[in-house]
Specification:
Elements: H1 13-23, H2 36-48, H3 52-61, H4 76-86
Length: 88
């Protein structure tokens, strides 16, 4: 039986680093505003994302600072929570 779940892609990790940087978030586990388990889940979601090429293209055109991740990002909710927690 074939596995239809997306396979992890380490190639997406630079996209997450670029996205979090533009959002003003630091991806150091000890400093992640919502806790290390949420950061780990975000990394896995990014690695399994099927929009890697779309994300890379979007990041190439996006400004250096953004307030929210694009709607196609599987981490849009986590990034929003992390930004809110960081601002407290």
């Amino acid at each position: 039986m074939p596995n239809s779940a997306p396979q992890p892609s380490p190639d997406h990790v630079p996209n997450m680093a670029a996205m979090t940087s533009r959002l003003g978030l630091v991806t150091v586990a000890a400093a992640w505003p919502t806790g290390v388990s949420h950061l780990a889940q975000a990394v896995v979601a990014c690695q399994r994302c099927e929009a890697g090429e779309v994300c890379t293209d979007w990041l190439a055109r996006a400004p250096a600072e953004i307030d929210v991740a694009p709607a196609f990002c599987p981490n849009v909710s986590e990034f929003k929570r992390a930004k809110q927690a960081q601002e407290k």
